[in-house]
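Encode chain A's predicted structure.
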Amino acid sequence: MTDIAVVIPFRGRWNSVLPTLEALSAQSVRPRITVVLSVDGMAEPPDEIRKLVDLHINGEQKGPASARNRGWRASSSPVVLFTDADCLPEPAWAERLAGKLEEGYQAVKGVYLSGGSSLIQRLAQVEFEERYRLMSRASVVYLADTYSAGFSRNWLEKLDGFNESFPLPEHEDVDLSWRLIEAGGKIAFVPDAGVAHVHRATWTAYFKLKFRRGKWRIMLVRKFPARVVSDGYTPQTLKLQMLFSMPLLVSLFAAPVFPVLTAASALAFLLVCIPLIRTASATDRSIVPVVPIFALWRAVALVSGSVCGFTSRRVI
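Encoded structure for chain A:
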């Protein structure tokens, strides 16, 4: 028996998960790890996959929440870490996350180290960097998102794992994190436990992602209304960007008739982008001029998704 299980939910092309499994093979505490590949409704993995995992579990296709539950329940390790099949954990990743859990935290959260070289990928990484800065200063960490996260096994059992009514890779980890906090657990932010990733590579793909995020966030806060004010992860200025984005779009159409109104709306929106601009200036200065456009694109996607979430009758 090992004392750390690393669970990867998987559905896709087998060769796409190989880099992740190879990165886990290079972990500094590899002898302590049971690598668990939880396959979501696919055939048995080929030999090249089998030799890189310690345990593989096949089950009916029900989504990543169900696959993660199958994975951690099939293991016996007291520490359970999660990452995704498109992430590359750095060599000390498991050691650092497990170390914080062993200090007494009930859950831990790591970070994305990188996101890709295209403009939208670099902007998306700046978005994460702003959130990480917020979390590093927060008195309470409310989120352990599963691209780089860990939980003590006894708390996964106490909370009955992930809510399997989430059919997509969307907010099931937020739901688990918020339930953990409400039950009295504590989450540690571990900024030196990083995974490399490739963020959405096109502006359209990013918009679709944020639309979905907005939809499911609204659906989830019905269950946790206290998190509307603050979730310890979403910058308050992002909420203001969402609020100001619609008046700005309307004023752009009215610019020939009401140019002063358009200028005032644009200035107001620019002001609430300042924290994100500062983060970009510190981490990727060359993209600073595009940050307000990115923020508007993101805000419109989130607002649109939120409207969809408000009208949804789905109960989670």
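The chain has a mean pLDDT of 93.
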